[in-house]
Design brief:
The protein is about 30% helix and about 20% strand. By secondary structure, the protein is an alpha/beta fold. The radius of gyration is 21 Å and the shape is elongated.
Length: about 280
Amino acid sequence: MQRITSRQNAVVTEFREAAQSSRDTLLLDGAHLVNDAIAAGLRLRRVIVAADALDVPEIARLIDRLDPRRVDLFAGNASVLDAVSPVRSSSPIVALAARPALTGTLFDRPSSLVVIVCDIQDPGNVGAIVRVAEAAGASGVVVAGPGADPFGWKALRGSMGSALRLPIVTMPDVHAALDEARRHDAQIVATVPRDGVSLFDAPLTGRVALLIGGEGAGLSPQAISTADLRVTIPMEPVVESLNAAVAAAVLLYEARRQRTGGAGRAGLDLNRATVAP
């Protein structure tokens, strides 16, 4: 294991550049994401561990899972970890990994359920949508338009590792995403705050593309006008709209309910759930 003591080290610079732009490299901040990346079979390229965390059992187990012939492993002091970890309180382990490779299309099954995220700017919202999409059994997510990068470090943390497992495609604009959905005969469902079919009356089985609009403006009039179905989540009149990730969760779980007849795998036990202070 190599030691790094300077924030000016070229490896530190590589990590900091990855935090600014993911391109073909993911910045994985924290033990949870590093563990999920290993489990997902992603190729880790470089790993930096806090020197004072080498004997922490969770970190030691992660290090034991790394192949030293394929992964460059470094130990850094507190100053180095502060430089490579983009969060306020630096994590004890940070890694660079190759982006997941996607093969085939998201609409390859007759029952494909795909979320198309349109111009959403907040990476936390994008990450949360990816997370709930995996939880609800969606086939994948399309991130369309000039929104947040689903593989940026903030979105990755928001997805809690789901972005490392669930197929994700980025497209230049919403129209390209709609064209792809139509090529596969998917029903395009646009979410609108008012005057759509009630969510609970909308057919969401079969091959479906759910359009989720960005913060503030929502979906463009063009995207709404070309949809096969406009759906509204019932709300009290005083509430204008829901957060994009919340809306996605409500829609996806109604789709799941319809597709499973109300049955599902083990989930949250409300009788035993607790709320963190």
